[in-house]
Amino acid sequence: MDVARDTPVPLSRVPDLGEAPPGSAHERALAGLWESAPGWRGWLGTVDHKRIGLRYIVTAFVFLLLGGVEALVMRIQLARPNATLLTPAQYDSLFTMHGVTMIFLYALPVLSGFANYLWPLMLGSRDMAFPRLNAFSYWAFLFAGLFLYASFPLGAVPDGGWFNYVPLTSLDYSAGANIDIYALGMILLGISTTGGAANFVVTLLRMRAHGMSIDRLPIIVWGTLTASVANLVAVPSVSLAFLLLWLDRNAGTHFFDVAHGGRPLLWQHLFWMFAHPWVYVVVLPAMGIVSDALPTFCRRPLVAYEAVAVSTVATMLIGFEVWVHHMFATGIAPLALAFFGAASMLISIPSAVAVFAWIATIWTGRPVFRTPFLYFAGFVLMFVIGGVSGVMTAAVPLDWQLTDTYFVVAHLHYVLLGINVFPVLGGIAYWFPKFTGRMMNERFGHVTFWVVLVGFNLGFFPMHISGLLGMPRRIYTYPAGMGWDTSNLLTTIGSFVFGLGIVMFIVNALVSARHGARAGENPWGAAGLEWSVASPTPVYNFAVLPLVASRHPLWETRDDARRTSVHVGYRLADGREALAVTPLAAMPNAILKMPDDTCVPFVLALLATGVFAAMLVRSPALVCVAVAGCAIATSAWLWPRRTLGQRRRLPARDLTQAPAAAAGPHPDAPSSATVPRGAPTACVEPLPVGSCGERAGGWWGVVTLVVTEAGLFGYLLFCYFYLQSQSAAPWPPEGMPKIGFAAGNTVVLLSSSVFVWLAERAVRAGRRRRAVAALVVALVLGTVFALVQLHEWRDHPYGPTAHLYGSLYFTITGFHLAHVVAGLAILALLAGWTAAGFFGRERRVALTVGGLYWHFVDIVWLFIFTALYVSPYWLGSAG
Question: What phi, psi does 521 have (nearest 5°)?
C-alpha cells in the first residue's frame, strides 16, 4: 500500500534516525517510492533530477555537434582566399546559428546538466526544490532549441549575428521571419533559463543536509548559485530586448526606429546588460567543477577555499558593471569610458585569485595524472590566455583598434569555449562513474585530451594573429595578399583536429558506458558527499540523509573531532520525502513531501512553445487558444494536493503525529542507532510536514519570481527614461498626463492589497467566510482597476504606433495589465480554494505566496505611476 496516498499527512513529525544496510527493506521501499514508471509515461513524466541532468548534458552535446558542423563549414570557406563554397547570405546564417547554438544552446545547458545531477548529491538531499519546475525547464530548453532550428527547413534562418544588432534586424532590412524566429525562440529559452535559475537558488536555500552550512558548500555550488542569481537579474534584459524588437517588427512600435525617436543604441544597452554577465554565467560553474575535482587528484583540499568562494561572488558583481565594455566604439562619453575601462580591468583580480588557488593546490599537492586532471590543467592554460586577451581589450585605445576583428573572435572562443569545454570534458570523465557505474577508458582518454588541446589552440590561437593583422570578423571571404592566408589555414586545420577530439571523447563515453570497467562507490578517493553513495547513483540518492560536520566529509580522519555521519541519518520514507533546512546554518526545519512524476511540465512546455509558434504566424486566435491551454495546465500544476501537505486535513483526522504505519521504526532499524561522536546533534523535535510555515519552498520560489519580474519592469522603466533623455521632442508629445484620474485608480489597486492581507489574517484566525469575502472584494477592486485602465487606453488621442511615447506608454501599462489579469486569475483560484476549505491555520502557503505576488503587482504600479504620470511634471519636459 502507498502510505503517502492512503494516509493523511501529519502536521508535524520527529524525523526517524537510523541506518539502512545495503539491500535492506528500507532501500527497497525507497526504490519503489522514487522509481519512475516504465514506458513513455515515465519517460515524459519523470522529475528525477539525475535523469533530467543527463538529458541536459546529452542534448547540449547534440547542439555542440550541430554548432561544430556549422563552424567547420565556415572554416572550409575561410581556409583560402576568394572561396565560393558559401554565398554571403549562407555564411551570415551559419555564423549566426553557430553563435546562438554554442553560447545559448550548449554552454550554459551543459553546466545546468552537471548542476542538476550533482547538486542534490553534493548537498545531501534527495531532489531539487521544485522537481516539476526542473522538468519544465528542460522541456522548454529542448523546445526552444527545436524552435530555433526549425528555421532551417522553413528557409528562414536567423542571419543578424548572435547579438542581433538593430537596425540591421529591423523590418526595413530583414523582412522575413528569420529575426522573429530568433526573437521568440530566445524568449522561450529565457523562460527555461529563469525557471532553472530559480530552482537552483531555492534548492541551495532549502534542500541541504543537516550541517551543510554555507561555509561548507562545494565551489561548484557557489559558482552555479552566483550564476543563477545573475540569470534572475540579467535574463529579463535580453528577453525584453527581443520582445521590443518583435513589437517593432510586428506591431508597428518605434523603440529602435530613429525616424520616430527610437534609438538603436538602446538594443546594445539591453543586450550587453545581459550578455556580459552571461560570460561569467557560463564560466563560474565551470570554474567550480575544477575547484571541486582538482583537489581529488592533488590529494589535498583546495587552497584558499574562502578566497575562491568570495572571488566567485565578486566576479559576478563586478561583471554587472562591465556591459559598456562592448560599446567603447559607439561614441559614449569619456567619463563613462574611463569608468567601464577600469571596471573591465578590475574584474581580472578576483579571477586571478582562483588561478593562484588552483596552481597552489597543484604545487603543494601530490598530483595524479589521470584524464580528468589533464583537462583541468589544460583549463588553467585556456583561462590565462582568455583572461589576458580580455584585459588587453579593457584598454580603450587598444579596444578601438581590435573591435570587430578576429582578435575578439579568438578571445571569445577562449573564454566561452575553452574555459567551458575543458572543465566539461574533465567533469564528465570525473563523474562518469556516478553517471554510469563504469570508468572511462584511461589510455584512450589521454590520447583524446592531447588531440583536444592541440586542436583547440591550433584552431583559435592564430585568430589573434589574424585580428592583429586587421582581419574583420563576420566576412565570408577575403582577397589574396592580405597576409591572412596562413593563419586562416592553420585555424581551419586546428578546428578539424579539435572536432575530431570531441568525437573521440563522445565515442569513448559511449563505449565505456557499456563496456567500461565497473566503478565502486568512490574510485577516485574523493571527499564529497556524492561519492558516499553507490555507483551508478540510486534513484533515491541517499538511503539515510547524512549529518555533515566538515567541508570534506569523506576525508575526515579518525581522530578528527568533527565527524560526518553518512551511514546513520534521517531515514524519511513515508512517501517521497526530503529534509528542509535553514538557509545559513542548515538546521532542519521541515520534512518536505516531494511530488510524484507527472506529464504536466511536458504539456505546459509544449503549450508555451505553441504560444510562440502562434505569434510567429501572427494568429491571435491560436495565441489565445495556446494561452488558455497554458492557464489550464498551470492550474493543474498548482492545484493544492493533500499528499504534498498543501491542504489542511479534515478535522476528524487532524492529528499532529504520523499514523503508526508511517511513523513507527522500520524493521531494518537497529535498536539503538546513534550518530558518530562529533557529528551534528540529530534533530529530536517535531518538524512541520509538507508546505507549512511562513517560509516554505513555495514562498522562496515566488520571491525569486518577484526578483526577476522586478528586473523586467526595471528594464522597462530604464528604456522609458533612456529614450526620454535622448528625445528632442516634447515629452509627452500630447501635453502633460492627467494625473488625477490615474491617482484614483492607483488607490483602488492598492486597496485590493489590503483585502488580500485581511484574507490571509482571516485564514490564520480560522475565519474562512471572512477570508473568502475579503478575496472577493480584492477581485472586484482589481477588476475595476483593469477596466479603468482599458477605458483610459480608449480615451487617449494616440495609440502605440503614433510615436515613441505612445509605444512606451502602451507597452509599459499593457505589460502591467497582463500581470494584473494573471494576478486576478490567481485570486480567483485562491478564493475558490479557500471556499472549498483547502486552507487552515497551518496549511495556507498557497494563499501566502499568491498574496505576495499580488502585493508585488500593486507595488510595481507605484513605480509605473511615478514614471508615466509624475515624472513629466518633475522633469518639466513637455512643451
Answer: -60, -45
